[in-house]
Design goal:
Elements lengths: L1 H18 L3 H11 L4 E10 L2 E7 L7 E2 L1 E4 L6 H13 L7 E9 L2 E9 L14 E8 L12 H14 L1
Parallel strand pairs: 1-6
Antiparallel strand pairs: 1-2, 1-4, 2-3, 2-7, 5-6
Length: 165
């Protein structure tokens, strides 16, 4: 009985909100009452059995890590991945492969992609100082100062890239 009453009350609220109140007010109520979260992309770049890692200036404890960045409003995750790779490395990637999505924190979702890179040309550090060094590492010889949460992501992308080949 209590469940039926609760369901009926919920339906009545949605009816009143959706049919009685002006659309702008409904949108405002929805915005204020819904959980907000950030969406980020994580990109694993492979060249054979080597992976590109970046030394981040803003993470002193674990400076080495993957390419990451926020998805901007109106941008798809794939567009964000492409933009972040270009901004941080100068590389243009034509094809990304999805391999992961999950909650990094309570209000932070990550979407992971991997891609193959044709060459290991010398890549410049970012002009804004965010990235101080870019280096290729063998997948079985990752640096000790790699962000620990990214090790499983590297392994997951490695498994999928091998299956894809």
């Amino acid at each position: 009985m209590a469940v039926a009453c609760s369901t009926m009350w919920r339906r009545l609220r949605f009816f009143l909100i959706g049919r009685v109140l002006p659309k702008r007010m409904v949108q405002g109520i929805m915005y204020l009452t819904q959980t907000k979260f950030l969406v980020a992309v994580v990109v694993v770049l492979w060249h054979g059995d080597e992976i590109l890692l970046l030394r981040h200036s803003y993470r002193p404890r674990y400076p080495w890590g993957l390419l990451t960045g926020w998805v901007n409003a109106g941008e798809s995750p794939e567009q964000a991945a492409s933009r972040e790779v270009f901004e941080e490395t100068g590389l243009t990637i034509s094809q990304f492969h999805y391999f992961y999505s999950g909650a990094a924190h309570r209000r932070h979702m990550e979407i992971g992609y991997w891609a193959d890179v044709a060459s290991q040309d010398q890549l410049p550090a970012s002009a804004d100082g965010e990235i101080t060094e870019l280096r290729w590492f063998a997948a079985d010889a990752l640096p000790d100062l790699l962000l620990p949460a990214q090790r499983p992501l590297i392994q997951a992308s490695r498994r999928q890239s091998r299956e894809f080949s």
